[in-house]
Amino acid sequence: MLKTVRENQIVDDGPDVAERPTRRPLAATTARAVLQIVLMVAVLAGAYLVMERLIAAAPERTARPRPEVSVPVEAMTAQVRDQRPRVEVFGEVTAARAIDIRPPVSGEIVEINPALSAGNRVEQGELLFAIDPFDVEVALAEARANLAQTEATVAEIEARLVSEQAQLESAREQLALARSDLERAEQLRANGTLTAKQVEDRTLVVSQRQQAVSQRVNNLAIEEARLDQQRAVLARQELGVRRAERNLGDSAVRAPFAGVIRSSTVETGRIVAASDVAVAMYDDSALEVRFTLTDAQYGRIATDADPLIGRQVSLTWTVGNVDYDYTARVERIGADIAADRGGVDVFARIAGSEAPVQIRPGAFVAVSVPDRLYENAVRLPETALYDAGTMYVIEDGRLARRDVEIVAFDGNDVIVGAGLGDGERVLTTRLSNVEDGLRVTIPGRDATATDDPVQDG
User: Fold this and answer.
1) pLDDT tens digits, residue range 110-155?
2) Pick from 126, 141, 139, 205: nearest CA to 171
3) DSSP per residue over 276-305, as a string?
4) pLDDT per residue over 185-205, tens digit each?
5) Among 59, 148, 345, 363, which is 20 to 30 Å from 106 by CA?
6) pTM for the complete prediction?
7) How far apart are CA 99 and CA 275, in angstroms?
8) Which residues share a beta bridge with 366?
9) On the CB side of 405, how many CA atoms lie within 13 Å of its CA?
């Protein structure tokens, strides 16, 4: 260690020079880093300037003209004519003619038709079941006996009436004779030939004869009243006989019309009353379909020139993944608005069909109803419609926009009321970049927009 005496102070200079490590000055290091950064920035700036000059000095290249592309599309030729779309709804098949059969008379069932089971078909007049006729036969015999007794009474009274009438005529003749005798006696009394006593005797005879006539008249009136009474009894007895005869015939219950048995509760030996529902059946030739049109659909069809009643509709019943087609004719419209179904109920009578499967009540079917008629309209696929009322026609190989009026939809078709001319080719392909003036081509021969004529009922 070295010690230096400075101004009378001893200063310790630290380790020996030979012992100190070598150190770079801080200022020199900082200056060198700054210089490197400056050089890098200068190099980058120089390179940028050189590149700009090279780009500016390069000759300008002219872009090649882009060829116009023609898009292949499909189109249909518009044909203006009367169009009638169809309304597709669902309906339920019901029986227009059904009946619950109650036996007219009470009694024990003694005979049943072997085919009297649900689902079987019976013909009109065919025996369904028979009730023991013993009580009815007894009632008929009693009614006939009462009738015979009343007829005898009437005959007896009529005979008495004849007798009373004859006696009345005789009494009147005797009264006339007595009056003549009295007149002669009075003349003779005036001449003095007869006495007063003899005249009085003849007067008494006239009085007696007159009383006898009055008695016969009264008897005749009484007998006529009895005859009227017995004739009324006779008429009642005749009705009783007819009722008993009818009951005897009704003991054999027969089918009122040809149809299908819906249910049966009869059994051999069972006692049935006149109020019991024994058999329920329906006429399978009088089936109808009930479907509901919304207020808008009903209002639209109701304003058509052709009435809804009488219009023919088409039915489709799907059974086992197989569709069976039927036809029906609208016969009536529901009396009230079907609030629970949101529209108006319509009933159409189903016509006979050659389908191998007989349609039954309760079947759920698809119903196709002819809508109102639109005159001078065009039918096109719905793919031709862009936005709410825009279509494109092809003119000289380019698209031209058309604003059209859509009046109805029919399945996958749209009915155009105005905006298209007859014979114009309408774009039916959906394009994502459709615009006016787009060049298009139609490969092959274009189709024709035709309507699907509806057989109006």
Assistant:
1) 999 998 988 899 999 999 999 998 888 898 899 999 989 989 988 9
2) 205
3) S--EEEE-TTSEEEEEEE-HHHHHHHHTSS
4) 888 878 777 778 887 888 888
5) 148
6) 0.60
7) 14
8) 90, 316
9) 8
